[in-house]
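Trying the structure run again after the queue cleared.
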Amino acid sequence: MPSQGFSFSRDQLTGIAGRILDHARTLGASACETDVSEGFGQSVTVRKGETDTIEYNRDKGVGVTVYLGQKRGHASTSDFSDEALRAAVEAAVQIARFTADDPCAGLADPELLATEIPDLDLFHPWAPAVEEALELARRCEQAAFDTSSKISNSEGASVSSQQSHFISANSLGFCAGYATTRHSVSCSVIAGHGDGMQRDDWYDSRRDARDLQAAEEIGATAARRAEARLGAQRIATCEVPVLFEAPLAVSLLGNFVHAASGGALYRRASFLVDGLGKPLFAPHVSIDERPHLPKASGSAPFDSDGVATRDRRVVAGGVLEGYFLSCYSARKLGMQTTGNAGGSHNLTISHGERDFDQMLALMDRGLLVTELLGQGVNYVTGDYSRGAAGFWVENGRISHPVEEITIAGDLAAMFRDIVEIGADVWDRGAKHTGSILIERMKIAGS
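Done. Tokens:
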């Protein structure tokens, strides 16, 4: 177990988990599970060449869940002393005593728990000195100012480095954990003057700092994006093809995951209730979950229930093949867990061979969306309505920037009407997709 900067070793975290399980057993708990974690990091921000913020964080915590038959109680603490750990277990037991029976409560089935924990290459510690991090942020921001004379102000450039490790254990004998890192560089700038100002940003986030995009490139990209938005105007209300830029197309995958997740399904708060085995996306679309990709943001050998994760095809030829279920939600639905307690793991959507410019050419005339505003998604009905900004496209080329519009549609229809997915894949997070072209959506403008 790496020890770089951690206050507790992996063996110490394991020992804490063991003491929690032992105390729960002595108090009469029929089952118990616990997570013990520790993390720390540093973030710096520079604005207009001057140091704006320097932040350090160091956290630790224990969460314990006990079961008295099918009664469940949960408690947590950030104190690792034996007295505090015992108090947390006792609090969880006391809560369980006053909780109603829940026939779906309980640990994962033993045969589903992870027994082999592959090394997914998720831990790459990077601890730059404060001055080194500040200099990196300055270079990032300065690159933005150097890229265009129209960059008039800055909201700052930031550099962040975070690392953590944890142990998850339960009374069925499961005990495993691992360390992770996440590092990022970002920049947000403003172009123009007076009433004609526009802002935009760019960032990169990776497990390994050596894989980060160059700071100067991040700053320059932020500047070009802000400058391109100058002169934005409203357009007339219309119904046209819409191309979601890859970083925003990720949100459409997020909408899909939410609607296909167990919590929404068993509450019948999703338009995908009873959707398994039915066409949902266009026939050329497939979506895979790949939880074991090395260094990827969404990789995990097991989920929050301790269930082993595995590669699977969620959408095949447009047909919905699987949901995203934890042990609890699966029992509520009369199904089996899919290893998704805590969320999805590296969703990758099939894509074509067209790059971004070729996707614009394919659309020919319509709206390129580069910013979404608000949370206007009704998962019960699938209705989709969000504020947006971007660019009007004519003859396959960007014509002018657009702002103060609303795009509207229906998620089921949007998924079904995907014309193509670009090869410009965005992979900064746990969902990977290229730009997504929707055949037609309603645009509310002037």
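The CA atoms of residues 407 and 443 lie 5 Å apart. Worth checking whether this holds up in the mutant runs.
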